[in-house]
Specification:
Elements (H helix, E strand, L loop, with lengths): L5 E4 L3 H11 L6 E4 L17 E8 L2 E7 L13 E4 L3 H12 L3 E7 L4 E8 L5 E7 L5
Parallel strand pairs: 1-4, 5-8
Antiparallel strand pairs: 2-3, 3-4, 6-7, 7-8
Length: 138
């Protein structure tokens, strides 16, 4: 079994996933557009190029998403995509561009449980956490 986050966007899914692929050193995203789907006739011409489904593979992990046509889009709430990273340098490398233009609720810093930890929403509205764990006491 795998848990795979599935993110919804308000028309900017392609831009978001291209940014995520670059920041997370992922493979180029696999985009499936509304206009190329069996649903093409049921969406307006302004949604033909919007994303019906996308898959991003980065560090062996999967992130999926889509553009949610109005009125189905809802601003994400009640969860965060957590990136559990191996070292502080990688946390800095990812945090800086991923949080740029977003809203930082807790800047990247050391905590009692983590070498580095941060909470923020990116410029696309996706809520994130970054964590670099400290060794567990024995």
């Amino acid at each position: 079994m795998k848990f795979i986050p599935y993110l919804h966007f308000n028309g900017n899914c392609e831009e978001a996933f291209n940014a995520y692929a670059k920041i997370l050193s992922g493979q180029p995203p696999m985009f499936f557009r509304f206009g190329d789907s069996p649903m093409a006739a049921s969406v307006g011409p302004d949604w033909a190029q919007k994303i019906m489904h996308v898959t991003l593979i980065a560090a062996g992990q999967t992130l999926n998403g889509c553009d949610a046509p109005s009125p189905h889009f809802e601003q994400p709430q009640g969860f965060r995509v957590c990136l559990d990273l191996d070292d502080e340098a990688e946390a800095e490398r990812v945090f800086t561009p991923l949080s740029e233009g977003g809203k930082v609720s807790m800047a990247l810093q050391e905590t009692f449980w983590a070498k580095r930890f941060a909470m923020f929403s990116d410029r696309f509205g996706t809520p994130w956490m970054i964590n670099v764990s400290k060794p567990m006491p024995m």
